[in-house]
Amino acid sequence: MAKDVVENAKSIGIRAELDDSNESVAKKIAEAEKMKVPYTIVIGEKEVQSSQVEPRTRADLPPAKPASIEDFLGQVADHAKTRR
């Protein structure tokens, strides 16, 4: 599922990466924050079952609300278009 989300994101022009390393989720999130990644989502069993994500945002961005994966990707794509 996570690979599908990354592929969908890339297909609509969002730069996305999958971290499927053996590190803990907390360490992956900390690394993303250190790299100033604007949005981070964790896709686990709960997210797969509900098709909902709870995005984490970079400190200088407004908080993102839980949304369906499709809605979240659409919001990010819209945000990216307005930044250019």
What does this structure look like?
- The protein starts with a helix and ends with a helix.
- By secondary structure, the chain is mainly alpha-helical.
- The longest helix has 15 residues, at 69-83.
- It is 49% helix and 10% strand.
- The strands form two sheets. A two-stranded antiparallel ribbon has the order 1-3. It has a two-stranded antiparallel sheet with strand order 2-4.
- The radius of gyration is 12 Å and the shape is globular.
- The protein contains four helices and four strands; from the N terminus they run ααβαβββα.
* Largest sheet data: 2 strands, antiparallel
Q: Compute the number of helices.
A: 4
Indicate the overall shape. Answer: globular
Q: Give the helix level as a range of percent.
A: 40-55%
Q: Could you give the topology of this structure?
A:
Blueprint: H1 2-11, H2 25-34, E1 39-40, H3 45-50, E2 52-53, E3 56-57, E4 67-68, H4 69-83
Antiparallel strand pairs: 1-3, 2-4
List the keywords.
single chain, 84 residues, two-stranded antiparallel ribbon, two-stranded antiparallel sheet, 49% helix
Please sum up the structure shown.
With 84 residues, the protein is mainly alpha-helical. It is built from 4 helices and 4 strands; from the N terminus they run H-H-E-H-E-E-E-H.
